[in-house]
Amino acid sequence: MKNFIKYNLKLIFVFLVISCSHGIKRTPQSNPIKGDNPQNSADSNYQSTVLFESENNSISIDGPVMDIDGNKFIANVNQKGWISVKRSNDKVFIDLLKLPDNGVASSMRIGKDKKIFLNDYINHRIYTFDYSNLNPSLELFYENKSLNQPNDMALAKDGSIYFSDPYWNKKEKKGAIYQLTKDKNLKVIFKDLRTPNGIDLSPDETKLYFTDSISGDLFVADLNKLNEGELPSVLFEFKEDTVDGIRTDVDGNIYVTRISLGQIDKISPEGILVQSYKLHGEFPTNLSFGGPEGKDLLISNRTNSRLEIIPIGIVGREWQIVH
After folding, report:
1. Considering the chain, what is the average pLDDT of its residues?
2. Among 138, 183, 270, 310, which one is least packed by beta carbons within 10 Å?
3. Could you give phi then psi for residue 282, rounded to 5 degrees?
4. Could you tell me if residue 144 is inside a domain?
5. Is the CB of residue 164 less than 8 Å from the CB of residue 198?
6. What three-state secondary structure class fits 285?
7. What CATH number is given to the structural domain containing 300?
8. For residue 19, how many C-alpha atoms fall within 13 Å in the half-sphere facing its CB?
9. 131 to each of 68, 71, 143, 203, 307, how far by Cα in Å?
10. What is the DSSP track for 53-97?
11. Residue 287 has pLDDT above 90, yes or no
């Protein structure tokens, strides 16, 4: 009889544990365990439109930007080392500028005074050109051979540029984040990083966001506390080797390209996954806001060198300060 009672008590205990565990409402965490859960996946329907696709898989397009008139500029679309343009009345991309000394651009951003800034990661340079000019010429803005390879960048209201400088061999040198002032003074923001890549600012420019490609982490740092020695903290943990470029909107959301997953993930300033946008290509690399109202997200995709666009409906932070 005693054994019978013990046996039934065990059954009741197991039943209660199972019932309670199934009754818990599970919500997304701010810093979930690394990986990609079903709740993090984009809807099965494509939310982007393909604007361009190349049959040359050996070319990896990058750094797409679009001005207020809808003219689109991109690197490496026809030939590596070239900047090309597809103006509103053009049917195809036309080669516009060739970077000297076998240079290759990894990022482009539209700045003030009709200028586009671009990083040449081969020659450790930053160039500008007048995008309103039908036949522009490159102007060297900054060069520093001690840099690893300036990768992605974000423009600030005061004219300074924040840029990532990764080093892909983690056994040797370290990566860093820099601020290049309008007067071309270089300041180290963070050093001894792994592979900082995508980078942008919050709307009030008090927060700096950047991704680390190897770890998959999205970091945030309070720029007002740099003098206090505060280090970046992880805002959101993605799966390793699945993140690249990022952009922020005027509400402070961060849009992250998900390499190999074929989507853009929208992360709130609090570190919550808000939405995922499904793309046609699997390897999105970089992105920017543009168009007449600055509410369109233009995305470069390594898959077949696709250029894709998503009408987000929110103005991009950087687009607002330029226009």
Report:
1. 86
2. 183
3. -90, -15
4. yes
5. yes
6. strand
7. 2.120.10.30
8. 6
9. 11, 9, 21, 25, 19
10. --S-TT---EEEEE-TT--EEEESSSSTTEEEEE-TT-SS-EEEE
11. yes
What is the predicted pLDDT for the residue at 88? 80
pTM: 0.87
Residue 40 covered by a domain: no
Residue 92: how many other CB atoms lie within 10 Å: 9
Full domain range(s) for residue 201 = 47-322
The pLDDT value given to residue 54: 78
**Under 8 Å CB-to-CB from 24, ≥6 apart: which residues?**
none
Is 34 part of a structural domain of the chain? no
Residue type, 184: K
* pLDDT computed for residue 58 by the predictor: 61
Residues 6+ apart with CB under 8 A from 262: 42, 278, 279, 280, 281, 282, 283, 284, 303
Number of domains in the chain: 1
Whether 23 is covered by a domain: the verdict is no
Residue 226, SS3 per DSSP: helix
pLDDT digits (tens, 9 = 90+) for 73-130: 999 988 889 999 999 888 889 999 999 999 999 999 999 999 999 999 999 999 999 9
Residue pair 83/74 in contact (Cβ under 8 Å)? The answer is: yes
In contact, 294 and 310? CB cutoff 8 Å? no
